[in-house]
Amino acid sequence: MHASAVSPGGIRSTMSTSGSRDLLGVLSSLASRMDLLVGTVLTHRSWTARLHGVGVLQDGSNHLPVSGVLLRSTGVAWDVRSEETHPLSIPVGTAGDSMDRVLIRCIEVVSSVVLVYHLSSHVSSSTTGCVVRSSMSLHSVLGSFMQWRVLGMESLCMHSVEGPKGELVVTLSVASTRTWRCRIRPADLGHVLSLQALSLGVSLSDVVMLVGTVDVVFGSVDL
After folding, report:
1. What is the helix (H) or strand (E) element at residue 197, kind and residue range?
2. I need a labelling partner for 13 at 20 to 30 A (CA). Which of 52, 66, 110, 205 fits?
3. What phi and psi values does residue 132 have, to the nearest 5 degrees?
4. How confident is the model at residue 153 (pLDDT cuts 50, 70, 90)?
5. Given its phi and psi angles, is residue 57 left (phi above 0), alpha (psi -120 to 50 degrees) or beta?
6. Whole-number Å distance between alpha carbons of 171 and 158
7. Mean pLDDT of 198-221
8. Could you tell me the CA-to-CA distances from 115 to 22, 86, 109, 189 in Å, in that order?
């Protein structure tokens, strides 16, 4: 579901029958391909030799500002989604190396497929009573959003959500019943800082691979 599907006070469109059928087909194909990928990763000697024991992160929760897959690869079972909405079986690593990070991402894709599969039937059956705003323009959506902003308080609010790269922290400063400052801190900056510790004792070609397993978006670092 794209972010534009949700608007304040309703949704922009309902899920059609053909859309539900296509969604189930994509989920089935994705799950089978991920099972094949995990089996290939575990049995491929060159792949395992290239990833195993490279970029080991020891006890990342105490010394480095890491979250998401990078944190869970060290054995810390922390996922914001399991604390807020859905009970998840959180996959964690044992070695904290690049192999753990690749396997955790593959397992989380399969877990997401199961989650979307169960929620799709709920969404299709619960959208009957929702307000459909398919004719809303961008200007009206922004106007509606401004009406739903935080009012009647003067404080500093902070909230975090689990993103693909790690925890995404959103901070709102509210004063005089108006939200006047919003700060979004992605997890990429902390993960870039952790590359120095991960790169100790590895070759230059391993550093290129570490950037991929840590999965940093450099556009989010330049803030």
Report:
1. helix 188-198
2. 110
3. -95, 125
4. low
5. beta
6. 4
7. 86
8. 16, 9, 10, 29
Domain boundaries, the chain: 3-137+144-218
- The mean per-residue pLDDT over the stretch 140-147 comes to 60
* 132, 10 Cβ separation under 8 angstroms: yes
The CATH fold of domain 3-137+144-218: Cytochrome-c3 Hydrogenase; chain B (1.10.645)
- pLDDT at position 149 over 70: no
Q: 108 with 73: CB under 8 angstroms? A: no
Residues in the chain: 223
CA angle (167, 168, 171) in 5-degree steps = 130
CA angle centred on 50, ends 47 and 52, rounded to 5°: 95
State pLDDT tens for residues 47-78: 888 888 888 887 644 577 888 899 899 888 88
42 band by pLDDT with thresholds 50, 70 and 90: confident
The residue behind tokens 């593959």 is: 106
